[in-house]
Predict the 3D structure of the following.
Amino acid sequence: MFAEPNPSVVKALLHRAGLIPTPAVRLPLLAAGEAVVERAVRALGEAGADDGRVRACRVTSAPTS
């Protein structure tokens, strides 16, 4: 998921899951490469996500250190 140094892979995964309307990012960020997105989908699937899809969750508070 962090193979590319920007949030574009995460946005692509959220878009595939139907949680955001578009995977687009603004400059200077670049769109995630399809191979990287496919690798992230496979990794999520191997980690137990349903068909490599991201599940929606709500964060209610930030963890404290």
Observations:
- The chain has a mean pLDDT of 77.
- The radius of gyration is 13 Å.
